[in-house]
């Protein structure tokens, strides 16, 4: 019992520290990390996100270094950035927090990069909310990988969100059911200088700051519309 309580407290502390206030320099580092994650994933087309998904995506969220820690009780947390497709290109980034939990006999920890892709208007509306649960409010599926993923893609395109994970160089679809996504209001305030709703940023009503342009342009480069 003492180990259980200690583990629960340790995981709780780790998650709390992960969501502590962030200065602007660290937020910009996160944007740079997210940019690099997209570039590295797409550098190997045969193991990347299929074109059929890239061209239909309505929003893209990247969470560099999503952490899982466990000692009897499991905890998960991560901080990321999201941009959405608008009639005038991809939006300025909004900032998100992901958190979840699991119970069981487990010990250890790991860090992975996550990518969430909204596939339709419903998926986009979920990301515009201040809070939603993957697999609850939003239907989700592990995303297919590679150029020849058309069969799997036909099945998963019905999902509102496709979810991916990269750990130790391996990029693949992952089940994130039960993970809660929140707007990171503190980082929004720090980065933009005031509280701005998700919907205002992601609908393209906010100009992209210079330090966020590499992330937005990288997403725009790869998540292109299919040629007509």
Structure in words:
It is globular, with a radius of gyration of 17 Å. A hairpin with a 2-residue loop joins strand 1 and strand 2. It has one domain. Strands 1, 2, 3, 4, 5, 6, 7 and 8 form an 8-stranded mixed beta sheet that branches. The chain has 8 helices and 8 strands, in the order H-H-H-E-E-E-H-E-E-H-E-E-E-H-H-H.
Which labels suit this protein?
disordered N terminus, 8 helices, alpha+beta, eight-stranded mixed β-sheet, globular, 228 residues
Task: Give a short overview.
The protein is of the alpha+beta class and 228 residues long. It is 36% helix and 33% strand. It has one domain.
* Helix-residue proportion: 25-40%
Tell me the distance between the termini: 62 Å
| Rg over C-alpha atoms, rounded to the nearest angstrom | 17 Å
**What amount of the residues lies in strands?**
25-35%
The biggest beta sheet is recorded as: 8 strands, mixed
Whole-number count of domains: 1
Please report the total strand number as a whole number.
8
Structural class estimated from helices and strands:
alpha+beta
Instruction: Report the average pLDDT across residues.
Output: 80
Q: In sequence order, what are the helices and strands, one letter per element? A: HHHEEEHEEHEEEHHH
Low-confidence stretches: 1-20, 69-74, 102-108
Q: Number of helical runs? A: 8
Morphology call: globular
Secondary-structure topology with pairs:
Blueprint: H1 2-18, H2 24-42, H3 51-54, E1 59-86, E2 89-90, E3 94-118, H4 121-128, E4 131-133, E5 140-142, H5 150-156, E6 161-167, E7 170-173, E8 180-183, H6 185-192, H7 198-205, H8 213-222
Parallel strand pairs: 5-6
Antiparallel strand pairs: 1-2, 1-3, 3-6, 3-8, 4-8, 6-7
Helix pairs in contact: 2-8
């Amino acid at each position: 019992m003492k180990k259980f309580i200690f583990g629960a407290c340790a995981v709780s502390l780790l998650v709390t520290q992960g969501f502590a206030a962030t200065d602007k320099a660290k937020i910009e580092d996160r944007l740079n990390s997210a940019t690099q994650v997209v570039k590295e994933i797409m550098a190997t087309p045969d193991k990347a996100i299929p074109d059929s998904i890239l061209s239909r995506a309505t929003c893209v969220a990247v969470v560099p270094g999503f952490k899982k820690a466990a000692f009897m009780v499991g905890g998960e947390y991560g901080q990321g950035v999201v941009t959405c497709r608008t009639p005038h290109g991809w939006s300025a980034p909004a900032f998100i927090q992901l958190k979840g939990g699991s119970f069981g006999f487990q010990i250890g920890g790991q860090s992975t990069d996550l990518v969430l892709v909204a596939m339709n208007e419903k998926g986009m509306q979920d990301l515009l909310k201040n809070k939603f649960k993957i697999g609850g409010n939003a239907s989700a599926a592990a995303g297919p990988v590679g150029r020849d993923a058309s069969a799997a893609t036909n099945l998963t395109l019905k999902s509102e969100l496709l979810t991916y994970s990269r750990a130790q160089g391996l990029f693949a679809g992952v089940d994130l059911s039960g993970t809660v996504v929140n707007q990171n209001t503190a980082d929004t305030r720090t980065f933009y200088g005031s509280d701005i709703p998700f919907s205002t940023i992601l609908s393209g009503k906010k100009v992209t700051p210079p330090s966020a342009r590499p992330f937005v342009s990288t997403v725009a480069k790869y998540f292109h519309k299919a040629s007509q």
